[in-house]
Amino acid sequence: MNSIESELKKIIKGKVHSEKEFKKFYSVDASSYQIIPEIIVIPENEDDIIHTIKIANKFKTNVTVRGAGTGLVGSALNNGIILDMKNFDSIKVRKDYAVVQTGVVKGKLDSKLEINKKFFPPNPSVGSFCSIGGMIGNNSSGSRSLKYGSMIDNVLEITIIDGKGKKIILPKNEKTSRIIKNKIKIDQRKIPKVSKNSSGYRIDKIITTKDSHKIIVGSEGTLGIVISAKLKIKNIPKKRILFVVEYGLVKNAISDCISINNTNPSAIEFVDKKTLQQINQKFEKDTKCLLFVEYDEKISQNEKEFKARITGKIVKKLTKKQDIIKWWKYRDSSLFYSLKSIKSVNRMPHVIEDAAVPIERLSDFFKMQEKINKKFKTKSVIYGHIGNGNLHVRLIGSRKNLTLVKNIAKHYFEEIIKMNGTITAEHGDGLARSEFIKKQYGKTNYQTFVEIKKIFDPNNILNPGKIISKKSTVINNFEKLF
Ligand SMILES: Cc1cc2nc3c(=O)[nH]c(=O)nc-3n(C[C@H](O)[C@H](O)[C@H](O)COP(=O)(O)OP(=O)(O)OC[C@H]3O[C@@H](n4cnc5c(N)ncnc54)[C@H](O)[C@@H]3O)c2cc1C
Q1: Would you say domain 3-84 falls under CATH 3.30.1490.20?
Q2: What is the rounded distance in angstroms from the CA atom of residue 134 to the CA atom of residue 137?
């Protein structure tokens, strides 16, 4: 046992592990990366977290907080202490908000809210498995974020332990929020012009000191360990209607998406030909893609408006709860379907997988993807949250050719940035994208990010190498699968 471990074991009420099987388990998440940690701490209470951070400062090691480990870009992986938040699992439901500890998995929150006829809007397709802490860490969203926003729009208050082991409640903590307000200098020209963004620190969302907690959302555990959060909750809509529409041309789906975007749909989602072939339903032979369009209010009025605007063929009009759930499952299984349709040797690691562009640039996005496939001899599967201009791309090519992965990433992110898009709209920067943040935001904004990191974590103890990054990590640390 080394001295960090024995010091932790002396003071921590929860569990401390360094056994090989624990290290192996916590060395991976749902990304293609792998980093073996030194020690795993499963804190029992706030004091355990404070002690862990203080010991990490003393021994100059790092602390990376982990939720359910479903992240797709390696943001919860690091080589120091991993802090597993699973014991932080309390939920208090009030009239229009819930106070939730961050180890709570989304499915548990959903069930508790449903009893109260409420729901929490951000709904990543990974469904019930991810934790509230991870969703805050990545600024997660999902299909209904089109109407209700991402995590950043649905969190009212956040309690953290910072990099010095100090407890801070934002936005109540005036000192920190004042510092943030004064430090934030924004080069607006370099802020992505999109409705969803999980890249960098969201300085663009800090309008007054009342917004200071938003700096934590999307910060990937680099500014503080989030203990609990006050979340906005909504009444479950009395009715929903879901249309599935098929198209012979992708460009018609894009123009319909733009046209119906201002009719206040709760979701507009896209799946391409390769994905729809996995759905247990017969479509026309020449169908190239589907749109899933949902409304959750003024149903008959919206149906009329929708039908007047749409040019594709409606293949399903669903109003029964069970049918709607069944069809959303088809859409939510797109990642699984896409992986199923690609041989494992041809599954390129997830790197360029969740960019977003302004919706007026969607045609350019698809053209760019075609050019990439031609230039780099790849194929792609595309699906996702088209109403937000946010599309997931799974590349089909040689899994082993890592130089190719890096070249594609560089080219792709440059093109996305040129379109005023974001390199990541929901899964975060992690190991895959942190090195591209400077390019995304420019020097002034990046320097502001560095200053913000210093406010919360002056010794760079918390998840170092993510967001503020000096190293190239995009093709390092891939899982030893090959
Ligand atoms: C099949 C699949 C489908 C998905 N679909 C979507 C989708 O539709 N929309 C979408 O937005 N996302 C989607 N995701 C990604 C999803 O957002 C993340 O997987 C999820 O939010 C991560 O939660 P987690 O608990 O697993 O976090 P982890 O993977 O454990 O951690 C993620 C990040 O959050 C940080 N973190 C965790 N807990 C805390 C805490 N208490 N305090 C501070 N930071 C913390 C970690 O350090 C890390 O940086 C999908 C993922 C999968 C696997």
Answers
A1: no
A2: 5
